[in-house]
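I have been asked to look over a protein record a colleague put together. Alongside the sequence sits a line of tokens, each denoting a local backbone shape. I have pasted the whole thing underneath without changing anything:
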Amino acid sequence: MKLALGSLVVFALQSLALAQSEWVEPVSHTDAASSSTKTSTSSSGNKLVKLNSGSSFCFFLPPKPNVYVASTETQGVPYCTKSSVVPGNKVFPSNFISVAHYNKTSKYVQVTGYINPSKAGLMSKDEGGQYDNHGNGNPPGAQCEGYKYFVNLVEPADKRFCIRCCHSKVDCNTGRSEYGCLRVVPGDYSGNTHMNNVFAELDQINPNDSDEETHANDAPSETDSTSTSALSSPQDVEHAIDALAQETSTTDDLSTIKQKWNAFAKRLEQSYPSAQEKIQSLTTTVDNFQIKAQWESFVQDFKSKLQQSEA
């Protein structure tokens, strides 16, 4: 179904706003201290983790607050999102997991995402460390249920975590922990989930709800992100977001990135007033970004939605 000009952009914005709003809701957990009182019925030597879904999984954390992950890898303690995942394991502190993406293939299963380090007493400047079952294991005896190998990184400084369990050693790279999650466990590190289900809304968009008439007589717009001219077509929007991505590629300063997005968002609101609420929702999402990787993923998602709406 071909959408009219303005509806193309509006649909993309609606889809992206919906997807970006679907943050993994922090599960209401008991805190680490209270959960520790529930492990008396289980062996204190349990070093088992398990990955069932994006809301049911475990990984290792340091044995106590305010210690470095790397220097205490041999003493890692398994925590889970729920006490029922692996009975006897501790439960993640409330609001510790902020985003989690689950992926299972015939070769491995993994969960990647973001954490709130302070909720578990992790140090904000800690570059992190790696747990795995290479050799005797870190910690010794560590295992992932149903899989022969696993690798698990926790990176408080980047507010990031990852864990992958594999049938074959080649799929669980335990040799270069300094590479970090993004290279050791490639996967979804965006700040949102369920990106694919938004396309079901396509048939609900009315092709006549278009801003095309409003823009029909507009002069060709400039496509750099600092321009104030109207974005008269999906192509204009795509070019402008490309320019924005290029401008922000050389800085890690989130304040600068957010300022540039805000200027771009104002142009979108002026060009597509019917999507103002969706655009403002996106701005709220950008305002909540904590690391640049979230911004980079957001830009790719934005472009993807726009391209899909044109198809």
